[in-house]
Predict the 3D structure of the following.
Amino acid sequence: MKLTARHGIVPLLAALALGVSGCAFFPQTTVSEPPAFENPAPQSSAADLAVPGSVAEAMAANATPIDAGADLAVSGSPVQITLSDAGSSAGEGVNVAGSQITISQPGSYRVTGSLSDGQLSVDVASKGLVQIILDGVSITNSKSAAVVLSGADRVALILEGESQLTDAETYVYPDSATTEPDAALFSFVDLVIGGSGKLTVNGRAGDGITGKDGLVIAGGTLNVTAADDAIKGRDYLAITGGDITANGGGDGLKASNDSDETAGYLLMSGGSVKAAAATDCIDAVTDVLITGGALELSCGDDGIHSDQLLMVEDGQINITKSYEGIESAVIVIAGGQLDITADDDGINASNGNSTDSDGFQDRDWSDGGDDTWGRGGMDPENMPTAMPQRGGRGGRGGGGFGGESVQAATLVITGGKITITAGGDGIDSNGTGSMTGGEVVINVANRGMEGPIDVIGEWTVTGGTITDPEGNPIQ
């Protein structure tokens, strides 16, 4: 989502012209000298933002996901592929070269058996759909990916029985310019995963599952463990069903295309996800759009992060551990139930994550995230000797640092039930915010500069409730 007009518009100005502002106040701290750092210049004004009124409206500007139902429907008798270290066998449309099994024609294939050091690949010269039924398959590879998919228009993996894919701990490429595949299950084409079976994926070198185009998970039970990102769809990652467990040494679930404004999004409308990640549990370059399903997230950095738009219409989101719970330039919560636990801010509307609204650099995860000052990456020997004066919040125009610019960021709450337990701010917006409905409960330590609500620009409340855990109103 672009922050201007890519999505349909629901003007914020009307909402910001309504209502009263309400924020918790902080004590001000005076200093003799300003600190030796500066806030970044805002990209544009918060008043210039346009916010879609629904996920459907947001999706109208995005690439359309694959029709998983059509791709998962198998007709006729699939070609049989039987894997074996002693010698694999297959029918028409399949090339068997030792432990390298290659599907070369569109069609439906049923795969059984195991390879202790081999690979199943799709390399189709003529365009079309390839359907692969994984029926009790085990594939391990000592030099590369266990499964590589390319050439076809689309590939559908249909899970039956219990299957397992394990890639190499160290990949061997033909030359220094080659860097892919880099996941145990790697697809260069659009990929759909569904069915009623179970798939365990062990990504020992990099990612667990990577789709270079679109990736749709519509069913099955997936258990994915990866040294880096557990599940990644470059153009998009759409979850419509299934039971997913994702453990990543990097991110949990990710959409990574940063060169196409219609791509790089994550859409969840059903299914369940349990993710644990060293960095973000869910990360998208453009949008994270949630209309249903259940999420249970334990994360080293953000629970859910998107660079542009994060919208929740329904579903259950339980973030049990995070540095910041949810973060995006534009956050819209219209429904659902959200339980957020965060070391820092519970909800953070921020246009860019290089600097927090309190002026400190965000945590640098490249070295493990030393968080002596709560923001990692700051040199302990060059810490500011005093805190800058924080302007009092309350009243239109917000607070934050004296003279701090309002970013092109906003939080809009129109519904839902939100419970926040935060070590920093419960709600933090580097731009503006508004609330017209919903229920919010905020539990914060209320220490120093942190508090229940921190909005630099205008914060308007015309509906809904905001309370502490004892039911006392927060204004």
Remarks:
- Confidence is low (pLDDT under 50) at residues 8-43, 353-402.
